[in-house]
Input
Amino acid sequence: MKILARSGMEFIADWGGVRLDQFLTQKMPRHSRAALQEMIRLGQVLVGGASVKPGRRLKPGERVSVSFPERAWNRSFDFEARVVYEDKHVLVFDKPADLLMHPTRPDWLKNPRAAQDEPCRNFAGLMAVHRPEVLASGAGRCGIVHRLDAETSGVFVAAKTEEAWRRLTAAFEEREVEKVYRAIVRGRVPENLSEIDAPVGRLTGSRRIKATPFGRPARTALRLIEEFPDASYVEARPLTGRTHQIRAHLDFVGHPVVGDPDFDRNAKLRPPRLMLHAYALRFKHPISGKTLSFRRNPPADFIRFLDLCRKGGPQ
Output
């Protein structure tokens, strides 16, 4: 193997008849075969300087070069400015609304480093670029222990070591982590609606998660912050940890989150995105046991739409 630079590597086929994707799987064991096949299709792998198909049979002595072009989003995103807190074990991050948590394809789990080569900006890829030691530490999923929807802004925590990842994951499973969300919802929420208790799950044959008798038990505490002519500003605390729980529960009581692609069907005035923000996070440090609390106010696009609601915008 010959290292070309930080951007790639080169191999010489020392035997013939093997498929290109199989050859690279042996030479680059940290990458899944599916990921390598995608790289070949994208033209990141050349045989003798030419693009070929994954099934191309190699001839002895052929030169195979692999490149890892740096994605523009790696350079343009100010990762450090988004770090709220960091030590040797954890990193608390203020997520913008346009950031995916990780690639949508499942094969990235076999090779977390491949997340940085995804065409869409994602937190896992940013960790691979800016905190590569996390991958080397053995922390799973590039340190991700819980997720926010792609369009949800706000604060979350990631692990930087295997032990921190294991303990934080267990803390979330045991519901020992307190999360607080802020949301703008359709309609006027009654002040006495303080808790939503309804099973949440996915119906057979459907990808949408909703409140359903066939789901798993779920509870969300709710507090009205401010009401407008046709909308409300609320605070939601998930008391259980179901996927899309807050969105499903608010739809269940007739007050979907404004801009929710699954539940909000009001087309007269569309917000810039899903109006959901992870406002606060409270957890015990996985190593020291010290209680840590963090808050981040909603970003500018959320505040602008909130001001519009105060003026009677959503109809």
Confidence is low (pLDDT under 50) at residues 1-6. The chain has eight helices and 16 strands.
